[in-house]
């Protein structure tokens, strides 16, 4: 750990602005996504050094399928490239890779294979947990959780009256029988947009937000650290009085 700032346990990032960065620099959107991937690598390292336990990135939403086949295919090729070039180092650094989203659904086979390999390789690691939200949409996630609970009722495992926030949260992608991923303390969105775009709607109930004009490929570890430091000075009340 670098210094004694009140480090958030979980930081989530909406990595936005690759397309605008590409336009600004007169290159293809895919080149923008590639630059975005390079920025992401640096943020993973920084989060790890800062002692953040969970880093979640929004990589591909359930709505991003609306984009051209060329762009979508290119994004998943980049994911394969990322796993190919980074997995050994992530593993060496004790990083655990985790996916939020139904990544078997619609995702190209090569990307699914890469993800499976990353999950398997890093399964026992207990350093930074790097969550990739992929084919992720929070409304789909909550709907899926409701359906899973209904099935448990149908099967007689629970009664309708047993449903609690705790039980529902366990069925989300952030749910885990060994203890859920804690809610994000801080959600950062780049590129000047100030919305959630279907990201962690349930989990963001008491998250702090930070918005920056910086386009994602230009986002640096230094800016990340500045935002985290500013977060550390905020008072969070969770509905209480202090
Ligand atoms: C974020 O950058 C990456 C993904 C959504 C996959 P965008 O591609 O949304 O970039 P802009 O918003 O068009 O600039
Ligand atoms: C959100 O960005 C999704 C990701 C960063 C993966 P979008 O660019 O898809 O969101 P909107 O369309 O601007 O809301
Ligand atoms: Mg965008």
**How would you characterize the largest beta sheet?**
6 strands, parallel
Q: Which kinds of small molecule does this entry bind, naming each only once?
A: 3-methylbut-3-enyl trihydrogen diphosphate, magnesium ion
- What's the alpha carbon Rg, rounded to whole Å? 18 Å
Low-confidence stretches: none
Secondary structure: number of strands? 6
End-to-end separation in angstroms reads 28 Å
Overall, the morphology is globular
Question: In percent, how much strand structure appears in the residues?
Answer: 5-15%
What can be said about this structure in brief?
The protein has 242 residues and is of the alpha/beta class. Helices cover 42% and strands 14% of the residues.
Name the descriptors:
6-stranded parallel beta sheet, binds magnesium ion, binds 3-methylbut-3-enyl trihydrogen diphosphate, 7 helices, 42% helix, globular, alpha/beta, Undecaprenyl pyrophosphate synthetase, 242 residues
Describe this structure in words.
By secondary structure, the chain is an alpha/beta fold. It has one domain (10-137, 184-231): Decaprenyl diphosphate synthase-like (Undecaprenyl pyrophosphate synthetase). Helices cover 42% and strands 14% of the residues. It has 7 helices and 6 strands. A 6-stranded parallel β-sheet has the order 3-4-2-1-5-6, sandwiched between helices. Helix 4 (109-122) links the parallel strand 3 and strand 4. Helix 1 (18-24) packs across helix 2 (29-49). The radius of gyration is 18 Å and the shape is globular. The two termini are 28 Å apart. The model has no long low-confidence stretch (mean pLDDT 96). One 3-methylbut-3-enyl trihydrogen diphosphate is lined by residues 15-20, 60, 64, 75, 191.
């Amino acid at each position: 750990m670098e210094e004694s700032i009140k480090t958030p346990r979980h930081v989530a990032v909406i990595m936005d602005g690759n397309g605008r960065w590409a336009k600004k620099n007169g290159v293809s959107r895919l080149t923008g996504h590639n630059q975005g991937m390079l920025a992401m690598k640096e943020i993973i390292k920084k989060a790890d050094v800062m002692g953040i336990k969970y880093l979640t990135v929004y990589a591909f939403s359930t709505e991003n399928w609306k984009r051209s086949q060329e762009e979508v295919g290119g994004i998943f090729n980049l994911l394969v490239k990322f796993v190919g070039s980074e997995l050994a180092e992530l593993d060496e650094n004790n990083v655990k890779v985790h996916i939020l989203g139904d990544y078997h659904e619609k995702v190209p086979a090569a990307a699914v294979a890469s993800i499976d390999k990353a999950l398997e390789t890093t399964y026992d690691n207990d350093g930074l947990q790097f969550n990739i939200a992929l084919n992720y949409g929070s409304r789909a996630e909550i709907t899926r959780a409701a359906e899973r609970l209904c099935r448990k009722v149908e099967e007689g495992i629970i009664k309708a009256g047993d449903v609690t926030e705790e039980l529902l949260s366990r069925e989300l992608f952030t749910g885990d029988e060994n203890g859920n991923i804690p809610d994000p303390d801080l959600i950062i969105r780049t590129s000047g947009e100030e919305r959630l775009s279907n990201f962690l709607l349930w989990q963001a109930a008491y998250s702090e937000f930070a918005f920056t004009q910086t386009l994602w490929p230009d986002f640096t570890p230094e800016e990340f650290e500045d935002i985290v430091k500013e977060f550390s000075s905020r008072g969070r009340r969770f509905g209480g009085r202090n």
